[in-house]
Amino acid sequence: MLDDFLVRATLAGVGVALAAAPLGCFIVWRRMAYFGDATAHAAVLGVALSLALETPIFAGVLVVCLFMATLVSSLSGRGYAMDTLLGVMAHSSLAVGLVAVSFLDGIRIDLMAYLFGDILAVGKTDLAIIWGGAILVVVLVVYRWSGLLLATMNPDLAHASGISPGREQLILTIALAIVVAVAIKVVGVLLIAAMLIIPAATARPFCKTPEAMAVTAAIIGCAASLVGLRASYQLDTPTGPTIVCMVALMFAFSSIFWNLSDRRKSRSRV
Amino acid sequence: MLIETRGLCVQLGQRMVLKDIDMGLERGEIVTIIGPNGSGKSTLLRALIGAVKPASGQVLHSRGLKIGYVPQRVHIDETLPMPVRRFMSLPRRPSAEALDAAMAGAGISGLDQQQVMSLSGGEFQRVLLARALLEKPDLLLLDEATQSLDHRGSAGFYRQIDAVREELGCGVIMVSHELHVVMRRTDHVICLNGHICCQGKPEVVSASPEYQSLFDLDDMETAVYHHHDHHSYSHNNRVN
After folding, report:
1. Is the separation of the CB atoms in A202 and A220 below 8 Å?
2. What is the β-pairing status of strands B67-70 and B3-12?
3. What is the pLDDT of residue A78?
4. N or C: more exposed end of chain B, with fewer CB within 10 A?
5. Domains (ranges, CATH) in chain A?
6. Can you state the angle between helices A82-102 and A57-75, rounded to 10 degrees?
7. Mean pLDDT taken over chain B
8. Of the given ranges (A83-87, A137-141, A203-207), which has the lowest mean pLDDT?
9. Residue A237: CB partners within 8 Å, gap ≥ 6?
10. CA pair distance B196, B201, nearest whole angstrom
11. Could you state, in order of their start, the residue ranges of all structural domains in chain B?
């Protein structure tokens, strides 16, 4: 069954969607969208380094993303606003990564695959890495769920309950690095942030609890992967971007729904 | 001693916010902290829960101390769906009976399925108190907990604190502006302005010259700085 490239692609897409959904919820709740983007951009540098040092891409990306995320966390609150800092770090690391790759011979063609993903080229080893990473992230987030939620709502309340917000932030940072590292093959570094944020944002209007939002986001992400894969096969379009287009479409419908139901509510209030 | 500070100094950015704070609290005792805006009252509470690290000095907790903390203001992001009942069971889920009892005690029984961000300031304050009491704390920290409550609400709030102290035997440290209300119900008053200006029994403190000079000043300036103070607090909260 795994010999069929479409089956492998489907499984890869679903795996990434499952890991990205709960993490994406935290990124939305904590207003860390740009943080996800910056970490993903740094991944290009990770790709360049792994190609140069001939280490596995997954490991290189993971290390660089972790380094990047810790650097940003420790630099924040030291004079620059977070978004400025992230803007500097994200685009510098992307630029350095692109320049670094150009020094390597015969890599230039490959780079597109890392920027936009190449889900149809996912092999059995990739699949094992993707699912291993996805399961790790889901287990981590589920295990720390209550602490993460409280630290997200109010760091002081977390402190008073004996939960360290710094540790919860570190857990999210590690989980984010893992998701970026496993998703690079599926949607590429430029579109990873979309798979994190859009399903969570799409789920928001339909949910009354944080748990429901995480599960709904996972379902939305999986559905988008399945439909997007099918559509890209039929229309002969690039797969990663097609999947992101599908989630974006769902987001548009969800926003329309939210606005309409909001209006209905405010009318009944009058 | 439930909690004790020794020579506690706290620095935020370039500014030394708290200097040489020595204070302590016994079980069953109510300590009230008063002081003008920017005198470090909230920072002191945050240092007691470990949210800000001392620049020097120590904060000592008794072994296994359970803290119930009611912050001045909590900003809940609109993107996070959170019903009241779910919020109350963070981080540890209490039994359904304990939850019901806590909500009834705080007069918020009807609100359990409401979204936290749709609550009014006063309702949210009650939710925060009920949540803080759920785990039967040894120490209750209240940061201007009655500022969103109306007159009757705040009187009821203080009655509830008294009842809780009787029932749980916990210590209470509260920060307050409502001096006359608080004075009657407190064992010990600490008058704070970066350092401890004066402290002691309520009647001793209110008669002391340090206290009088501090609050004559405050009365003139409160109206102007009140809003500004709250704004900067919630802003800091979000950055953290």
Report:
1. yes
2. unpaired
3. 66
4. C
5. 5-192 (1.10.3470.10)
6. 150
7. 82
8. A83-87
9. A231
10. 14
11. 3-80+121-201
The terminus-to-terminus CA distance of chain B in angstroms comes to 31
**pLDDT tens, B156-165?**
888 888 888 8
pLDDT higher than threshold 50 for residue A88 = yes
Q: Is the ipTM of this complex over 0.90?
A: no
* Cα–Cα dist B20/B195, whole Å: 6
pLDDT tens figures, B46-99: 999 999 999 999 999 988 899 999 998 888 888 999 999 999 998 888 888 988
Q: Which residues have a Cβ under 8 Å from the Cβ of B26 and sit 6 or more positions away?
A: B1, B2, B171
Interface test with B, best of A26, A32, A156, A251 (most B CBs within 10 A): A156
d(CA A105, CA B107) in angstroms, rounded, equals: 71
Whether the link from the prior residue into B91 is cis, omega within 30° of 0, is: yes
CB B69 within 8 A of CB B49: yes
Short-list B223, B201, B207, B208, CA closest to B36 = B223
Residue of A28, A154, A206 to mutate, testing the B interface (most B Cβ within 10 Å of its Cβ)? A154
Class of B3-80+121-201 in CATH: alpha beta
